[in-house]
## 1
Amino acid sequence: MFVEKRRAFESVAAIRAATERLLPRPAMSLLNGGNQAGNTASANTEIFSDVLLRSRLCQAHHQISTSAQVAGFSASLPLMFAPVAAQGLAPGAELLQARACAAGGVPLGVSNFASVPWNDLTEVGANIVAQFYWVDGRERMAERLARASAAGITSIILTLDWTFPAGRDWDTPAIPKALGWQEALEWGPAALSRPSWFLPFVAKRAMPPLRVPNFADSRDASPTFPNVMSRWRGTAYPRWEDVAWLRKQWEGHLTVKGILEPADAVAAVRTGADAIVVSNHGGNDMDSVAPSLAALPAVATAVGGKVPIMFDGGIRRGADVVKALALGADTVLLGRAAAWATAARGQRGMSELMSLLDRDLRQTLRSIGVSSIAELSSDHVRKTPAFTGLSNAFSPCRRS
């Protein structure tokens, strides 16, 4: 990958702009995502403007604590990088991310559709949280759980909010089954229009990988992305009893992702989840569902502190992290920002992303007069009239 000889990124917006200059349009479309009109994807970021921080004078602390427990790991920041598919947009992308996260002390969520095997990532020394989708049913799920454990994985995310959406109002690039002459002719012009992205693959004599090694099992040792997608579409949607079954199979830390409703938060806790993620899949599943931040306060009330709450959706700066924590989250996830940073500058880009988030988070905490993320509460923010949090009239759950 060609590294831009420029100063370190100062914002996630700058990272995104650099990525847009580098990647072909179809590849950038895959990363940016969103479904149908993209209303939910846009609302995830826009809603942060409807929550204001309460600045305090003469109360700033010199020493700031940002450490947290994230998905069963000790972390230097109250965040984890979310699992994102299509990371083959940079050679060895997940490996670059893992190295940066190992150095930065931040856990890395790895997509079920990652292009790098779990064991290659754990060997780097990073704290890896492996994502699982419900694909193929219980027997093959059990095989993959066993493979994850053998690879050194101790923490997983079960992502439930995916129903095979379709109908984007903009172009959705098709993922080919293999890379041959036909695919080269179809994708060639777009790739050649961005030589800084294409040439590193040429130098490594490898095209973007289309295989998903972490779906391997006794029946398919090297599945392709399209093959697994076809199998996934043919799999019955999971029920809460399936989640409870998976809990019994997995002895490590289990996070359930995709919660927007208090009732689902309660159900996830009752199945034995160690943590939940308030998320709408970055607006990539059903459009017009609530932005994650609007759903957060009611879910936090329903959970009542029984398990940690992670927040995912629209985080772009340290101030966003503070707002999410103040409204009920314990930690947050960042997905697209990490994908942009890796595509733009590889391992260096990820390190710069962590540095700017750390700097911004500490400055925000100083501005509102707290010395630790543990001190944050709703007293540190103001909701404008435009902020519409969902009703929190729901009894706190009791874990059974």
Note: The first helix runs from residue 12 to 22.
## 2
Amino acid sequence: MVIGEMGQATGVLKMSKVLITGHTSGIGKALKEKFEENGHEVIGVSRSTGFDVGKEGDWERLIEEHGMTFDYVILNAGVARFTHKEEEDYSDRIVSTDLMGVYYPLCRLILLMNPNGESVCGVTGSSCAYQSSIDHPLYAAVKTGVDILVKSFTKILAVDGIRIISIAPGFTITNLGNQNYEIPEKLLEGVPLKRAMNPDELAGYYYTILTEFKFANGCQFVIDGGEHA
């Protein structure tokens, strides 16, 4: 119960229910821990737990189990490769996970989210959407497409009271794609702050934006240390 100034019970404190895709490592894991430490109930789904965000059927099953109960949906799952040749060999998976894994749930947000007029969907984009790339052109193109999906579905779902926000991080220290990838120092030279983020740092920004920025809707928060300034 919530206790008022005079000690009377004023109501039941309801904690939010959160869905996070790609929750077992990196940014997703940090987000799961951040929401849980603030008292939220978190449901995590990922390929490692048998859920493929790029398959419509998996979303249908999730709706059957948890439909219209989430206050926050965070579409975070992503894969990448960091050379043009590796990316070409992995292209189907990149499109399936990074693009369709956003499109399918956005099409179903009204079936996933609590119809309370305060539900928020966060989508993990990337600062690479704002420049061309000779190393991973498909990943950059897909993340550009994700931004367009966010803008389009903002207008589609406005009548249902669901807000959608994209968080576009710059260089972040994660094991994206299960690779032992280290950010080259020469790339960090292009970042005015001369460093990368860690997932816990990004999760703090992400959490604040989703929970506190009540008028933010249909926008992209680029958090890249000034790389694209």
Note: The radius of gyration is 18 Å.
